[in-house]
Structure formats: C-alpha cells, structure tokens
Design goal:
globular, mainly alpha
C-alpha cells in the first residue's frame, strides 16, 4: 500500500519506476490517491518541492557510501548450470542402463539354469544311482526355498543395504548360487556326499529365488516410467532365450563330454560374471530420489513388515482374488506329476540320448511362446471360465501322450521314440505353463495399489508349493503302483490316473470368473 504524503518522498521516487498497476488495482486505489494530504497545487510549490528533494538526495548521497550498481550475473553462469545438469542426467541414464543390463543378465541366467539342472538329473541317476521316486523327491524338495519368495520381496522393500535395496540382493543371490554350483563341481559323486549335494541344491535354489524376486521388483519400478508391458516383454524374452540356449547346449555338451561337473563349472563361471556385474553397478532406480535413511527412520522394520503383510492378507482375502488363486493352485496340486519317473524311463529303459531330452525342452518352450502369441491375438477375448475349461481338458489329453510312448503305440504307427519324445514329451508341461498366463493377467487387473510385488510373489510361491505337493503325490503314486528302475510295467496305470486327476479341478470351476475377459479388465460377480 503506497502513501503519497510529502513526509515520505522516497516512496514517490520508487513509484515513478514501478510498472503501471492493473486496471483493477488502479481503480481500487484511486480513492486513496485522490485524498492524499499536502499535495502541491501550484507550479511554484511543485518546483520548490523538487528542489527540496534534490537537496536532500544530494545530502544523503554525500553522507552515505556510494552505492554500487548491481552487477548482473555473468551470462555463462546459466549455461554452465544447464551443462552440469545435462551431464548429471546423462550419468544417471548410463547407470540406469547398467541396472537394466544387470536385470537382463539375471533373467537370462535364470532361464539358463536348465543347463546345469539337466546335468544334475543325469548326475543323480547315474552317479548316485537314485531311483525314479527318489529323483523326483529330490527335484521337488529342492524347490522348497522358492516358496519363501514373498518374504524376500518384503525384505528387499523394507531393508536397505548401503542406501540400496535391489542390487545388493541380486549380488547375494548370485553369490549363493555360485557357492552352490561351485561346490557341486568339486565334491565327488558318492553316496556319502549326498547330504552335502542336497544342501547345495537348496542353497542354489534359495539364491535363484532371491534373484528372481528382486529382478521382478526392479522391472516393476522401471515399468512405471515406460510404456506398459514393454519391460515385462523384454524380461520374458531374456528368460526364454536363456532357457532355449540352455536346453540346446546342455544336451549337446552332456552328450559329448558325459561329465556333468564340466557343466557345473561352466555355469559357476557364468554366475561369477553376473556377480561381478551386479557389484560394479550403482543402483539407480526411479525410487532412488527418496532418501532411504529417512524412509527407514519413519517406520521400524517390524512396522514395515507388519504393514506389508497386513496389506497382502487384505488383498488375498478378497473373494475376487481368493477364489481364482484357490482354483489355479489346487489345479496343480491335485495332479500327481511323474516327471522323474518318465525321465528315468526315457533315459534308462529307452536309452535315449541326452540331446533328445534337451531338444524336447526346447520344443516345449517354443510351444509356450506360440501359445502366448496366440493368446494375445485371439484367446484373450474368450471368457476366462470357458478358456480355462478348454485348457484343462487339453492338458488332460496331453498327459496321455506319455501313455502312447510307454505302450510303444508310436512304433506301431511308424513314429520312432526319438521323434515322439521330441514332439510330444513336453506338450503337457507347455500347456501347464500357459495356463498360468490368463490368471496373471487377471491378478494384474485386480491387484490393489501398493501390493503388486507382494501379491505376485505370493502367487508364484503358491504355484511352486502346489508343484511340490504334486511331485510328492507323484512319488507316492509311483511307489504305490510299484514302479522301479527295473520294472515299468505298472507305469501306464499311473499315467491313466494322472490324466483322470487332471479333470478333477473342473468340479470347482465356478471359482473362476465366468464372464471376465482380458479386454474388459473388469471382473464381474460370480
């Protein structure tokens, strides 16, 4: 508010240099300006007031130190700041690309794990002489650490290691796998060392589960700044590429060398490269701008874990999430898997080469990729309940392809065992993997905000636990019907029971939403 009285002449000088007021402000203050007291009315009074102001100004300027004119900021200052900001931004982008490389290598390595696992199956059957039931029990018991994925996800969210909470866990997972497979490459293949080898299998799968969970979390963080589904597609491609190369090279190397420990050593070297890459990379994530120390000060670790677990239980308890999860998990758990028994039948009884087994896995992965593309183009428009019903029936029929091999019906039709195993051995496994995809899309549309990582970790760990139960039931079934290394006569009965069990989940198919499709992204009430 301006006062135009003669007692404050410096305000009049300031007013001369001010920009004109807006019309509204001028109108608002017009009345105050017109009633100002002591305003000069004649030209003589105006000249006298100007002389007094000039004299007073000269006196004050001579008494006070000379004022320095404001020095304008040098012109290059602003461009220098911009250049520095650009350099920092480029450095941040380089670090982010390194993080992407770490994740990409991590997914590729996890897909390549089939390379040493193929050798491990031969190592356990030929080196240790395990029976089909014992081999299948070892395979499923070794997957127990994968059930703890939700815990690892919550820990990576809540616990920071050196102001980072993603890459350190990837390094820990790679180190655990390196220790595991390196030990398997050194210790002798004798019955006395079997407990040590089992411990190595558990530790290796523990490291793999940690790496997978944290890699998924990193992709989830970056996907919020990218186009939807792009990074997930890259991760899936890296995983599939590693799996294809692992199965192709695994069968060939094992056929040429007949030494599983060479494959263990090669995979250990690959894990060492992954560990070195993760340790040399600075964690730069979209959430890195948040101060990790202040985040930990606000809430204690126990409070963070309790809150995250409470949110997870609240999400799972919703009927629209609970019922589909129950169906997909029980659909795997009630079907006894005879994978270990069939592996022994193909390698011990039919004397098939390891390269054929590896190529059959490659064909299975190609089937999964083809089914995924077909789903994205056509099948996602089909209501979920109708789609899942058809897939489950197809899965039951695909199991019977093993019955054709065991009864040697393929030879009656002029199809060699190698061709039948190559084309149909992994068919049922590929359909089972594809069955998970529609439920993943369903959960992504239903997942509450803030529970993406924990809910999907719980989903995958539940599937792993269902697979373990299925493997245990398969061991019990093969033992009950009397299958052994020297006697496979009752194996056709086991395959028939397995195919019939695959139809049991259709009895509670009402748990699956009836009219939901992937295009709608809306779940209708059952």
């Amino acid at each position: 508010m301006l006062c135009l009285s003669p007692c404050a002449p410096h305000l009049h000088l300031d007013h001369l240099h001010r920009p004109p007021l807006r019309p509204a402000a001028t109108a608002k203050n017009a009345r105050r300006a017109t009633v100002c007291l002591g305003a000069p009315r004649t030209p003589e009074e105006r000249r006298a007031r100007q002389r007094r102001r000039l004299a007073k100004f000269q006196d004050s300027s001579s008494a006070a130190p000379a004022l320095k004119a404001p020095v304008p900021a040098p012109a290059p200052a602003r461009p220098a700041t911009a250049t520095r900001t650009t350099a920092e931004r480029r450095g941040s982008l380089r670090e982010m690309r390194r993080v992407w490389w770490v994740c990409g290598v991590g997914y590729w390595v996890q897909g390549f794990r089939c390379f040493p696992w193929l050798a491990l199956n031969f190592h356990l059957t030929r080196g240790l002489g395990l029976s089909p039931a014992a081999l299948q029990l070892v395979q499923n018991a070794g997957n127990l650490p994968l059930v703890a994925k939700p815990l690892f996800g919550v820990l990576s969210d809540a616990v920071y290691i050196g102001r980072a909470h993603r890459l350190p866990y990837i390094s820990i997972g790679a180190l655990l796998q390196l220790i595991s497979w390196g030990t398997l490459a050194i210790i002798p293949a004798t019955g006395d060392t079997f407990p040590t080898q089992m411990a190595c299998i558990l530790v290796g799968n523990l490291g793999a589960s940690v790496t997978e969970v944290v890699s998924d979390a990193v992709v989830t963080e970056f996907s919020r700044t990218q186009k939807a589904g792009v990074l997930q597609s890259y991760a899936f491609i890296a995983l599939a590429a590693g799996s294809l190369l692992g199965n192709l090279s695994g069968g060939y190397v094992l056929l040429k060398t007949q030494e599983p420990k060479i494959m263990f050593t090669a995979f250990s070297v690959l894990l060492g490269f992954q560990l070195a890459l993760s340790l040399s990379t600075k964690e730069t994530l979209p959430s890195s701008s948040v101060n990790s120390s202040s985040h930990l000060v606000k809430n204690s670790l126990r409070a963070n874990l309790r809150k995250q677990f409470s949110n997870l239980m609240t999400a799972i308890s919703e009927e629209r999430i609970f019922y589909p999860l129950t169906w997909i998990m029980t659909s795997f758990a009630v079907v006894p898997i005879l994978s270990g028994t069939m592996f022994c039948f193909q390698t011990q009884y039919l004397k098939l080469d390891s390269s054929i087994i590896g190529l059959s896995k490659v064909v299975g992965q190609l089937m999964v990729l083809s089914l995924t593309v077909f789903y994205n183009r056509y099948l996602k428009r089909i209501p979920l309940r109708r789609l899942v019903t058809g897939v489950q029936i197809l899965y039951s029929l695909a199991i019977l392809s093993d019955l054709v091999l065991v009864k040697q019906i393929n030879l009656m039709l002029g199809i060699p065992n190698e061709i039948h195993v190559l084309c149909f051995s992994a068919l049922a496994e590929a359909i089972a993997q594809f069955k998970v995809l529609p439920f993943s899309v369903l959960l992504s549309s239903l997942c509450p905000p803030g529970c993406e990582g924990s809910l999907f970790a719980a989903f995958t760990s539940g599937l792993v636990f269902s697979a373990i139960l299925s493997g245990v039931f398969g061991v019990g079934l093969s033992t009950l019907i009397g299958v052994s290394l020297s006697d496979y006569s009752s194996l056709p009965l086991g395959i028939l029971l397995q195919s019939l069990a695959a139809l049991l989940p259709l009895g509670w198919i009402s748990f699956v939403p009836e009219k939901w499709t992937a295009d709608e992204k809306v779940v209708l009430q059952r």
